[in-house]
Write a structure and sequence with these properties.
This protein is α/β, with parallel strands linked by helices. The chain has 3 domains: 2-121, no CATH class; 154-181 and 295-444, Rossmann fold, CATH 3.40.50; 186-285, Rossmann fold. The protein has helices spanning 2-7, 58-61, 80-83, 88-93, 131-137, 160-165, 186-199, 217-229, 243-251, 265-279, 293-309, 325-337, 389-403, 409-417, 445-456; strands at residues 15-19, 72-76, 100-105, 112-117, 156-158, 171-176, 209-213, 232-238, 255-259, 283-285, 316-320, 342-348, 383-387, 426-431. The protein binds pyridoxal-5'-phosphate. Pyridoxal-5'-phosphate is lined by residues 184-186, 217-218, 320-326, 365-367, 408, 410, 432-433.
Length: 458
Protein backbone atom coordinates (compact mmCIF):
# COMPACT_ATOMS: atom_id res chain seq x y z
CA UNK A 1 0.00 0.00 0.00
CA UNK A 2 2.87 2.32 0.78
CA UNK A 3 3.87 2.48 -2.86
CA UNK A 4 0.39 3.44 -3.97
CA UNK A 5 -0.08 6.03 -1.27
CA UNK A 6 3.22 7.60 -2.22
CA UNK A 7 2.22 7.59 -5.82
CA UNK A 8 -0.87 9.57 -4.87
CA UNK A 9 1.26 12.13 -3.07
CA UNK A 10 0.47 11.08 0.49
CA UNK A 11 3.55 11.42 2.64
CA UNK A 12 4.06 9.58 5.93
CA UNK A 13 3.36 11.37 9.19
CA UNK A 14 0.10 13.27 9.21
CA UNK A 15 -3.32 11.95 9.72
CA UNK A 16 -5.87 10.39 7.48
CA UNK A 17 -8.86 8.27 8.22
CA UNK A 18 -9.20 4.99 6.43
CA UNK A 19 -12.63 3.54 5.96
CA UNK A 20 -12.67 -0.07 4.84
CA UNK A 21 -15.24 -1.18 2.33
CA UNK A 22 -16.12 -4.67 1.35
CA UNK A 23 -15.89 -4.59 -2.42
CA UNK A 24 -17.77 -7.84 -2.77
CA UNK A 25 -20.97 -6.10 -1.83
CA UNK A 26 -20.85 -3.24 -4.26
CA UNK A 27 -19.89 -2.85 -7.83
CA UNK A 28 -19.47 0.90 -7.42
CA UNK A 29 -17.47 2.38 -4.57
CA UNK A 30 -19.55 3.43 -1.58
CA UNK A 31 -18.80 6.38 0.59
CA UNK A 32 -19.66 6.33 4.26
CA UNK A 33 -23.15 7.58 5.04
CA UNK A 34 -23.62 11.24 4.28
CA UNK A 35 -20.21 11.79 2.77
CA UNK A 36 -19.76 13.66 -0.43
CA UNK A 37 -17.27 12.95 -3.16
CA UNK A 38 -16.85 10.02 -5.46
CA UNK A 39 -14.16 7.43 -6.05
CA UNK A 40 -13.11 5.60 -9.14
CA UNK A 41 -14.28 1.99 -9.26
CA UNK A 42 -11.75 -0.60 -8.11
CA UNK A 43 -9.84 -2.26 -10.85
CA UNK A 44 -11.28 -5.54 -9.78
CA UNK A 45 -13.45 -6.99 -7.01
CA UNK A 46 -11.49 -8.15 -4.03
CA UNK A 47 -11.59 -11.32 -2.07
CA UNK A 48 -11.26 -9.76 1.33
CA UNK A 49 -11.76 -6.49 3.10
CA UNK A 50 -10.37 -7.42 6.47
CA UNK A 51 -6.70 -6.94 5.82
CA UNK A 52 -5.31 -3.46 6.20
CA UNK A 53 -2.34 -1.84 4.59
CA UNK A 54 -1.66 1.84 4.84
CA UNK A 55 0.81 4.51 4.07
CA UNK A 56 3.92 4.40 6.20
CA UNK A 57 3.05 1.08 7.80
CA UNK A 58 2.15 2.89 11.06
CA UNK A 59 -0.81 0.58 11.46
CA UNK A 60 1.43 -2.36 12.15
CA UNK A 61 3.23 -0.55 14.96
CA UNK A 62 -0.16 0.32 16.42
CA UNK A 63 -1.15 -3.30 16.46
CA UNK A 64 -4.03 -2.83 14.02
CA UNK A 65 -4.16 -6.05 12.09
CA UNK A 66 -7.71 -6.74 11.11
CA UNK A 67 -10.74 -4.59 10.69
CA UNK A 68 -14.20 -5.16 9.34
CA UNK A 69 -16.20 -3.29 6.78
CA UNK A 70 -16.80 0.32 7.67
CA UNK A 71 -14.28 0.27 10.51
CA UNK A 72 -12.19 3.36 10.87
CA UNK A 73 -8.60 3.61 11.95
CA UNK A 74 -6.43 6.64 12.34
CA UNK A 75 -2.98 6.80 10.96
CA UNK A 76 -0.17 9.28 10.91
CA UNK A 77 0.41 10.47 7.37
CA UNK A 78 1.84 13.98 7.09
CA UNK A 79 0.44 16.37 4.53
CA UNK A 80 -2.23 14.03 3.27
CA UNK A 81 -4.69 16.78 2.47
CA UNK A 82 -2.14 19.22 1.20
CA UNK A 83 -0.83 16.85 -1.40
CA UNK A 84 -4.01 14.98 -2.21
CA UNK A 85 -5.90 15.96 -5.35
CA UNK A 86 -8.97 17.54 -3.78
CA UNK A 87 -11.08 19.85 -5.90
CA UNK A 88 -11.26 23.27 -4.25
CA UNK A 89 -15.05 23.45 -4.53
CA UNK A 90 -15.46 20.14 -2.78
CA UNK A 91 -13.03 21.23 -0.08
CA UNK A 92 -15.11 24.33 0.63
CA UNK A 93 -18.36 22.38 0.73
CA UNK A 94 -17.24 19.65 3.05
CA UNK A 95 -16.73 20.94 6.53
CA UNK A 96 -17.07 17.70 8.39
CA UNK A 97 -17.34 15.23 5.58
CA UNK A 98 -14.91 13.32 3.52
CA UNK A 99 -13.28 15.49 0.92
CA UNK A 100 -11.68 12.87 -1.14
CA UNK A 101 -11.79 9.21 -1.58
CA UNK A 102 -9.64 6.92 -3.65
CA UNK A 103 -9.36 3.20 -4.04
CA UNK A 104 -5.95 1.66 -3.84
CA UNK A 105 -5.38 -1.81 -5.05
CA UNK A 106 -2.56 -3.95 -3.79
CA UNK A 107 -0.24 -5.34 -6.48
CA UNK A 108 -1.49 -8.86 -5.89
CA UNK A 109 -5.05 -7.58 -6.28
CA UNK A 110 -6.29 -9.03 -3.04
CA UNK A 111 -6.73 -5.95 -0.92
CA UNK A 112 -8.61 -2.80 -1.72
CA UNK A 113 -8.94 0.09 0.66
CA UNK A 114 -11.03 3.14 0.22
CA UNK A 115 -9.48 6.24 1.76
CA UNK A 116 -11.81 8.85 3.13
CA UNK A 117 -9.94 11.89 4.30
CA UNK A 118 -11.79 14.09 6.73
CA UNK A 119 -10.95 17.72 7.12
CA UNK A 120 -11.19 17.48 10.91
CA UNK A 121 -8.36 15.00 10.75
CA UNK A 122 -6.11 17.59 9.23
CA UNK A 123 -4.05 17.67 12.35
CA UNK A 124 -2.02 20.69 11.29
CA UNK A 125 -5.22 22.70 11.16
CA UNK A 126 -7.09 20.96 13.97
CA UNK A 127 -7.18 22.89 17.19
CA UNK A 128 -9.87 20.99 19.06
CA UNK A 129 -13.55 21.76 19.30
CA UNK A 130 -15.00 25.23 19.56
CA UNK A 131 -16.04 25.16 23.20
CA UNK A 132 -16.68 28.20 25.35
CA UNK A 133 -13.48 30.28 24.99
CA UNK A 134 -13.70 30.59 21.23
CA UNK A 135 -17.31 31.66 21.50
CA UNK A 136 -16.28 34.36 23.92
CA UNK A 137 -13.43 35.57 21.79
CA UNK A 138 -15.23 35.66 18.45
CA UNK A 139 -16.63 38.88 17.01
CA UNK A 140 -20.30 39.84 17.19
CA UNK A 141 -23.01 37.62 18.68
CA UNK A 142 -21.74 34.74 20.80
CA UNK A 143 -24.79 32.57 21.42
CA UNK A 144 -24.71 28.80 21.12
CA UNK A 145 -27.82 27.42 19.45
CA UNK A 146 -27.40 23.98 20.96
CA UNK A 147 -25.66 22.82 24.13
CA UNK A 148 -23.63 20.23 22.19
CA UNK A 149 -21.79 23.09 20.48
CA UNK A 150 -20.25 23.93 23.83
CA UNK A 151 -18.50 20.59 24.19
CA UNK A 152 -14.74 20.89 24.06
CA UNK A 153 -11.98 23.38 24.63
CA UNK A 154 -11.56 23.22 28.38
CA UNK A 155 -8.94 25.36 30.11
CA UNK A 156 -5.59 24.32 31.58
CA UNK A 157 -4.41 25.41 35.02
CA UNK A 158 -1.00 25.15 36.62
CA UNK A 159 -1.02 23.78 40.18
CA UNK A 160 1.33 26.36 41.65
CA UNK A 161 0.30 25.86 45.29
CA UNK A 162 0.47 22.07 45.35
CA UNK A 163 3.81 22.14 43.53
CA UNK A 164 5.15 24.70 46.02
CA UNK A 165 3.77 22.97 49.11
CA UNK A 166 5.13 19.58 48.01
CA UNK A 167 8.44 20.93 46.70
CA UNK A 168 7.86 19.67 43.16
CA UNK A 169 10.19 21.16 40.57
CA UNK A 170 8.13 20.08 37.55
CA UNK A 171 5.24 22.17 36.21
CA UNK A 172 1.95 20.41 37.12
CA UNK A 173 -0.89 21.30 34.77
CA UNK A 174 -4.50 20.09 34.88
CA UNK A 175 -7.16 20.19 32.15
CA UNK A 176 -10.41 21.22 33.82
CA UNK A 177 -13.13 19.05 32.32
CA UNK A 178 -15.76 20.33 34.77
CA UNK A 179 -15.94 23.15 32.20
CA UNK A 180 -17.80 20.76 29.90
CA UNK A 181 -21.57 21.30 29.60
CA UNK A 182 -22.36 18.47 32.00
CA UNK A 183 -19.11 18.66 33.91
CA UNK A 184 -17.09 15.67 32.76
CA UNK A 185 -14.61 14.46 30.17
CA UNK A 186 -17.21 11.97 28.97
CA UNK A 187 -19.29 14.67 27.24
CA UNK A 188 -16.69 14.50 24.46
CA UNK A 189 -16.93 10.72 24.08
CA UNK A 190 -20.72 10.82 24.20
CA UNK A 191 -20.85 13.31 21.34
CA UNK A 192 -18.35 11.45 19.19
CA UNK A 193 -19.95 8.03 19.78
CA UNK A 194 -23.31 9.38 18.66
CA UNK A 195 -21.95 11.45 15.77
CA UNK A 196 -19.91 8.51 14.50
CA UNK A 197 -22.94 6.21 14.52
CA UNK A 198 -24.89 8.88 12.64
CA UNK A 199 -22.12 9.29 10.07
CA UNK A 200 -22.16 5.56 9.47
CA UNK A 201 -25.92 5.58 9.04
CA UNK A 202 -26.42 3.24 11.99
CA UNK A 203 -28.84 5.43 13.95
CA UNK A 204 -31.47 8.02 13.22
CA UNK A 205 -33.36 10.40 15.53
CA UNK A 206 -36.88 9.42 16.48
CA UNK A 207 -36.30 5.82 15.40
CA UNK A 208 -33.27 4.54 17.28
CA UNK A 209 -33.16 3.94 21.03
CA UNK A 210 -29.67 4.29 22.47
CA UNK A 211 -28.68 1.93 25.28
CA UNK A 212 -25.49 1.34 27.16
CA UNK A 213 -23.71 0.25 30.29
CA UNK A 214 -22.45 3.23 32.26
CA UNK A 215 -21.06 3.95 35.67
CA UNK A 216 -22.47 7.41 35.23
CA UNK A 217 -20.48 10.12 33.52
CA UNK A 218 -20.71 8.72 29.99
CA UNK A 219 -24.41 8.15 30.58
CA UNK A 220 -24.89 11.75 31.66
CA UNK A 221 -23.05 12.92 28.52
CA UNK A 222 -25.10 10.62 26.28
CA UNK A 223 -28.28 11.80 28.04
CA UNK A 224 -27.96 15.44 27.04
CA UNK A 225 -26.48 14.83 23.57
CA UNK A 226 -29.20 12.24 22.85
CA UNK A 227 -31.98 14.53 24.04
CA UNK A 228 -30.74 17.35 21.80
CA UNK A 229 -30.48 15.07 18.81
CA UNK A 230 -33.84 13.38 19.37
CA UNK A 231 -32.88 9.94 20.72
CA UNK A 232 -34.32 8.04 23.68
CA UNK A 233 -31.58 6.67 25.96
CA UNK A 234 -31.69 3.71 28.36
CA UNK A 235 -28.81 3.49 30.85
CA UNK A 236 -27.88 0.17 32.46
CA UNK A 237 -26.03 0.73 35.72
CA UNK A 238 -24.75 -1.32 38.62
CA UNK A 239 -27.02 -0.67 41.62
CA UNK A 240 -25.61 1.11 44.68
CA UNK A 241 -22.69 2.53 42.70
CA UNK A 242 -23.34 6.25 42.61
CA UNK A 243 -26.49 7.77 43.96
CA UNK A 244 -25.52 11.19 42.57
CA UNK A 245 -25.28 9.87 39.03
CA UNK A 246 -28.50 7.88 39.31
CA UNK A 247 -30.28 11.05 40.47
CA UNK A 248 -28.83 13.09 37.62
CA UNK A 249 -29.66 10.51 34.94
CA UNK A 250 -33.27 10.30 36.07
CA UNK A 251 -33.44 14.09 36.33
CA UNK A 252 -32.30 14.27 32.71
CA UNK A 253 -35.17 11.99 31.68
CA UNK A 254 -33.13 8.84 31.11
CA UNK A 255 -34.63 5.41 31.77
CA UNK A 256 -32.23 3.87 34.29
CA UNK A 257 -32.11 0.09 34.70
CA UNK A 258 -30.24 -1.08 37.78
CA UNK A 259 -28.54 -4.45 37.87
CA UNK A 260 -27.36 -6.15 41.06
CA UNK A 261 -23.56 -5.84 40.92
CA UNK A 262 -23.28 -9.19 42.72
CA UNK A 263 -24.86 -10.90 39.71
CA UNK A 264 -22.10 -11.76 37.25
CA UNK A 265 -20.34 -8.39 37.61
CA UNK A 266 -19.84 -6.55 34.34
CA UNK A 267 -21.19 -9.48 32.33
CA UNK A 268 -24.48 -9.14 34.17
CA UNK A 269 -24.74 -5.56 32.88
CA UNK A 270 -23.90 -6.58 29.31
CA UNK A 271 -26.49 -9.39 29.47
CA UNK A 272 -29.13 -6.82 30.45
CA UNK A 273 -28.23 -4.69 27.42
CA UNK A 274 -28.45 -7.79 25.19
CA UNK A 275 -31.89 -8.43 26.62
CA UNK A 276 -32.93 -4.88 25.72
CA UNK A 277 -31.88 -5.51 22.12
CA UNK A 278 -34.26 -8.47 22.04
CA UNK A 279 -37.11 -6.63 23.77
CA UNK A 280 -37.02 -3.32 21.88
CA UNK A 281 -36.77 -2.56 18.18
CA UNK A 282 -33.93 -0.42 16.80
CA UNK A 283 -31.66 -0.44 19.81
CA UNK A 284 -28.14 0.85 19.23
CA UNK A 285 -25.65 -0.01 21.93
CA UNK A 286 -23.26 2.73 22.98
CA UNK A 287 -20.17 0.71 23.86
CA UNK A 288 -17.39 2.94 25.08
CA UNK A 289 -15.07 -0.01 25.80
CA UNK A 290 -14.87 -1.31 22.23
CA UNK A 291 -15.90 1.57 19.94
CA UNK A 292 -12.90 3.44 18.41
CA UNK A 293 -15.07 6.57 18.23
CA UNK A 294 -14.41 6.94 21.97
CA UNK A 295 -10.62 7.45 21.76
CA UNK A 296 -11.25 9.33 18.52
CA UNK A 297 -12.97 12.10 20.54
CA UNK A 298 -9.72 12.63 22.39
CA UNK A 299 -7.54 12.27 19.32
CA UNK A 300 -9.56 14.95 17.52
CA UNK A 301 -10.29 17.31 20.34
CA UNK A 302 -8.67 16.77 23.76
CA UNK A 303 -5.19 16.04 22.38
CA UNK A 304 -5.04 19.01 19.99
CA UNK A 305 -6.37 21.31 22.72
CA UNK A 306 -3.57 20.24 25.08
CA UNK A 307 -0.96 20.58 22.37
CA UNK A 308 -2.13 24.07 21.43
CA UNK A 309 -2.68 25.43 24.94
CA UNK A 310 0.73 24.22 26.14
CA UNK A 311 2.33 25.63 22.96
CA UNK A 312 3.68 22.13 22.36
CA UNK A 313 5.64 22.21 25.63
CA UNK A 314 3.97 19.20 27.26
CA UNK A 315 6.57 16.57 28.28
CA UNK A 316 4.45 14.03 30.17
CA UNK A 317 0.74 13.24 29.93
CA UNK A 318 -0.97 11.45 32.81
CA UNK A 319 -4.51 10.03 32.66
CA UNK A 320 -6.45 7.46 34.60
CA UNK A 321 -8.06 4.73 32.54
CA UNK A 322 -11.73 3.83 32.71
CA UNK A 323 -12.69 2.90 29.18
CA UNK A 324 -9.15 3.88 28.17
CA UNK A 325 -10.50 6.46 25.69
CA UNK A 326 -8.71 9.50 27.11
CA UNK A 327 -5.28 7.97 27.62
CA UNK A 328 -5.41 6.24 24.22
CA UNK A 329 -6.73 9.15 22.14
CA UNK A 330 -4.74 11.96 23.77
CA UNK A 331 -1.63 9.74 23.95
CA UNK A 332 -1.90 8.88 20.26
CA UNK A 333 -2.21 12.53 19.28
CA UNK A 334 0.56 13.84 21.51
CA UNK A 335 3.00 11.08 20.52
CA UNK A 336 2.25 11.80 16.89
CA UNK A 337 3.20 15.43 17.49
CA UNK A 338 6.23 14.57 19.61
CA UNK A 339 7.18 10.90 20.01
CA UNK A 340 9.31 11.65 23.09
CA UNK A 341 6.29 12.70 25.17
CA UNK A 342 5.89 10.21 28.02
CA UNK A 343 2.48 8.64 28.54
CA UNK A 344 1.48 7.58 32.06
CA UNK A 345 -1.66 5.55 32.69
CA UNK A 346 -3.24 5.58 36.16
CA UNK A 347 -5.34 2.81 37.72
CA UNK A 348 -6.68 2.01 41.20
CA UNK A 349 -4.14 0.20 43.38
CA UNK A 350 -6.94 -1.99 44.78
CA UNK A 351 -7.82 -3.24 41.28
CA UNK A 352 -4.59 -2.94 39.30
CA UNK A 353 -5.66 -5.05 36.33
CA UNK A 354 -3.55 -3.23 33.71
CA UNK A 355 -0.53 -3.84 35.93
CA UNK A 356 -1.39 -7.55 35.99
CA UNK A 357 -3.37 -7.64 39.25
CA UNK A 358 -6.79 -9.05 40.06
CA UNK A 359 -9.98 -7.01 39.81
CA UNK A 360 -11.36 -5.89 43.17
CA UNK A 361 -13.62 -3.26 44.68
CA UNK A 362 -12.32 0.31 44.82
CA UNK A 363 -13.93 3.70 45.14
CA UNK A 364 -12.32 5.81 42.41
CA UNK A 365 -15.47 6.25 40.35
CA UNK A 366 -15.08 6.19 36.57
CA UNK A 367 -11.77 4.33 36.35
CA UNK A 368 -10.57 0.75 36.89
CA UNK A 369 -13.50 -1.24 35.44
CA UNK A 370 -11.86 -4.53 36.47
CA UNK A 371 -10.86 -5.65 32.96
CA UNK A 372 -8.67 -4.35 30.16
CA UNK A 373 -10.85 -2.49 27.65
CA UNK A 374 -10.47 -3.36 23.98
CA UNK A 375 -9.82 0.25 22.97
CA UNK A 376 -7.04 0.79 25.53
CA UNK A 377 -3.84 0.94 23.47
CA UNK A 378 -1.29 -0.41 25.92
CA UNK A 379 1.48 -0.39 23.32
CA UNK A 380 1.94 3.37 23.61
CA UNK A 381 1.81 3.58 27.44
CA UNK A 382 5.26 4.17 28.97
CA UNK A 383 4.33 3.60 32.60
CA UNK A 384 1.34 2.49 34.67
CA UNK A 385 0.99 4.13 38.09
CA UNK A 386 -1.34 2.78 40.78
CA UNK A 387 -3.10 5.05 43.28
CA UNK A 388 -5.24 4.00 46.25
CA UNK A 389 -8.76 5.31 46.78
CA UNK A 390 -7.57 6.97 49.98
CA UNK A 391 -4.72 8.79 48.20
CA UNK A 392 -7.06 9.88 45.41
CA UNK A 393 -9.67 11.29 47.82
CA UNK A 394 -7.07 13.02 49.97
CA UNK A 395 -5.66 14.72 46.89
CA UNK A 396 -9.11 15.70 45.57
CA UNK A 397 -9.75 17.42 48.93
CA UNK A 398 -6.35 19.16 48.74
CA UNK A 399 -7.11 20.36 45.20
CA UNK A 400 -10.28 21.99 46.57
CA UNK A 401 -8.60 23.70 49.49
CA UNK A 402 -5.17 24.55 48.09
CA UNK A 403 -6.07 25.31 44.49
CA UNK A 404 -9.80 26.11 44.69
CA UNK A 405 -10.52 23.27 42.25
CA UNK A 406 -13.74 21.38 42.91
CA UNK A 407 -12.96 18.15 41.06
CA UNK A 408 -13.77 14.45 41.43
CA UNK A 409 -11.97 11.42 42.83
CA UNK A 410 -10.25 10.33 39.59
CA UNK A 411 -8.89 13.87 39.26
CA UNK A 412 -7.30 13.36 42.67
CA UNK A 413 -5.79 10.07 41.45
CA UNK A 414 -4.37 11.81 38.38
CA UNK A 415 -2.84 14.59 40.48
CA UNK A 416 -1.23 11.99 42.78
CA UNK A 417 0.31 10.24 39.77
CA UNK A 418 1.54 13.48 38.14
CA UNK A 419 4.59 13.48 40.31
CA UNK A 420 7.67 12.81 38.24
CA UNK A 421 10.66 14.60 39.69
CA UNK A 422 11.55 16.20 36.41
CA UNK A 423 12.79 19.71 37.03
CA UNK A 424 11.23 22.19 34.64
CA UNK A 425 9.30 19.52 32.74
CA UNK A 426 5.62 20.06 32.06
CA UNK A 427 3.28 17.31 33.30
CA UNK A 428 -0.28 17.62 32.01
CA UNK A 429 -3.09 15.63 33.56
CA UNK A 430 -6.88 15.45 33.44
CA UNK A 431 -9.33 16.79 35.99
CA UNK A 432 -11.97 14.56 34.54
CA UNK A 433 -15.11 15.61 36.39
CA UNK A 434 -16.57 18.16 38.78
CA UNK A 435 -16.63 17.59 42.54
CA UNK A 436 -20.33 18.26 42.99
CA UNK A 437 -21.04 14.94 41.24
CA UNK A 438 -19.78 13.14 44.35
CA UNK A 439 -21.75 14.90 47.11
CA UNK A 440 -23.28 11.59 48.23
CA UNK A 441 -20.05 9.63 47.98
CA UNK A 442 -17.30 8.89 50.46
CA UNK A 443 -15.45 11.97 49.16
CA UNK A 444 -17.86 14.27 50.99
CA UNK A 445 -18.96 11.86 53.74
CA UNK A 446 -17.27 13.62 56.63
CA UNK A 447 -18.36 17.13 55.67
CA UNK A 448 -21.86 15.87 54.92
CA UNK A 449 -22.12 14.31 58.38
CA UNK A 450 -20.85 17.49 59.99
CA UNK A 451 -23.51 19.48 58.14
CA UNK A 452 -26.26 17.06 59.13
CA UNK A 453 -25.20 17.22 62.80
CA UNK A 454 -24.94 21.01 62.86
CA UNK A 455 -28.37 21.33 61.30
CA UNK A 456 -29.95 18.95 63.85
CA UNK A 457 -29.76 21.65 66.54
CA UNK A 458 -32.09 23.94 64.61
C1 LIG B 1 -14.65 10.71 36.53
C2 LIG B 1 -13.96 9.93 35.46
N1 LIG B 1 -12.62 9.97 35.40
C3 LIG B 1 -11.95 9.29 34.47
C4 LIG B 1 -12.61 8.50 33.55
C5 LIG B 1 -11.80 7.70 32.58
O1 LIG B 1 -11.90 8.17 31.28
P1 LIG B 1 -11.81 7.13 30.07
O2 LIG B 1 -13.10 6.37 30.04
O3 LIG B 1 -11.63 8.01 28.89
O4 LIG B 1 -10.65 6.24 30.32
C6 LIG B 1 -13.99 8.46 33.57
C7 LIG B 1 -14.73 7.63 32.64
O5 LIG B 1 -15.93 7.43 32.74
C8 LIG B 1 -14.68 9.18 34.55
O6 LIG B 1 -16.02 9.15 34.63
Amino acid sequence: MHWKAKEKGIRPKSCIMVQLKDRRRASAPQLPHGHGGSAPPPRRANASAVAVAVAGGGWRRRGIEKKGEGDAIFLPVEGAIASAPIPAAKRRRSLVRSVFSRSFTHPDDTISIQFSVYPHHRVEMQEGRKGVPSLLSSQGECIASNITQLIGWTPLIELKNIAKNDGIAARLVGKIEPYQPLSSVKDRSALRLIEDAEERGLISPGTTTLAGVTSGNLGIGVAFVASQKGYKFIAVMPAKLSMDKQILLRYLGVEVILVDPALNGFKGLLDRVEQLKKDIENVFVIDQFTNPANPDAHFRWTGPEIWKDTAGKVDIFVAASGSGGTVTGVGRYLKMKNPSIKLICVEPAESAVISGGEPAFHNIQGIGPGFIPEILDRSQIDEVVTVTTQEAMDMARRLAREEGLLVGISSGANAVAAREENKGKMIVTMFSSGGERYLNSELFAQVKEECININKSF
